Structure to design on (213 residues):
């Protein structure tokens, strides 16, 4: 696997699917949320149009906009508070990259109350120099606002950063921000479309990052 340019000093990660093993819990939370709202949950639509911008899922499922805020609260409730887990090789990867001197960060479309809690519970706050969540931006993925805000926060230019994600929206966001992009396979349905999004590098496991940086 090719090595990236040594000018790269900063690696920014998506959270769900890329680092956090959350696909199953997220799927169940969507099902239970729609059930509580009295709407049918169409698994085929979910598989076909899944996006880290969950409002696209609400829209495709026919959930009226007036219920979106309530659906957000219900999703968090149904997602629950089980101890979070990283994907296989995730902990080893981030710890080794930090040991090698890279500045690491998270740019996620997930809710801050959940993402920051999970980062804390996994004893990773000191590993990440910045954590950007849904509430920190106005525009959602694939708009580059999240990455741009992260780079400003840690005073890094796009030329020294790379973004790692598991969805086509992650890759598009990275391109729009002018960053190198790494696509990583995950259990989320959107990952099926990931290779066609044209990441600069595609890998089957997060631990393969250690072959490149």
């Amino acid at each position: 696997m090719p090595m990236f340019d040594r000018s790269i000093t900063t690696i920014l990660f998506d959270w769900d699917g890329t680092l956090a093993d959350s696909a199953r819990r997220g799927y169940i939370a969507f099902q239970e949320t729609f059930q509580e709202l009295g709407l049918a949950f169409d698994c085929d639509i979910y598989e076909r149009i899944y996006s880290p911008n969950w409002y696209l899922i609400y829209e495709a499922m026919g959930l009226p906009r007036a219920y979106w805020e309530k659906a957000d609260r219900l999703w968090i409730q149904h997602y629950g508070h089980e101890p979070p887990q990283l994907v296989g090789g995730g902990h080893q990867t981030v710890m080794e990259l930090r040991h090698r001197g890279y500045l690491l960060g998270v740019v996620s479309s997930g809710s801050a109350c959940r993402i920051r809690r999970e980062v804390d519970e996994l004893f990773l706050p000191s590993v990440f120099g910045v954590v950007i969540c849904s509430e920190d931006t106005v525009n959602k993925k694939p708009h580059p606002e999240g990455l741009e805000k992260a780079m400003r926060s840690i005073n890094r230019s796009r030329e020294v950063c790379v973004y790692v994600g598991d969805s086509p929206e992650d890759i598009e966001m990275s391109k729009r921000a002018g960053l190198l992009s790494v696509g990583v396979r995950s259990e989320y349905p959107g990952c099926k479309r990931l290779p066609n999004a044209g990441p600069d590098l595609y890998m089957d496991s997060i631990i393969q990052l250690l072959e490149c940086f």
Notes: The chain is about 40% helix and 15% strand. The longest helix spans residues 23-36. The CA atoms of residues 29 and 50 lie 14 Å apart. Residues 10-21+84-211 form a domain with the Rossmann fold fold (CATH 3.40.50.1000).
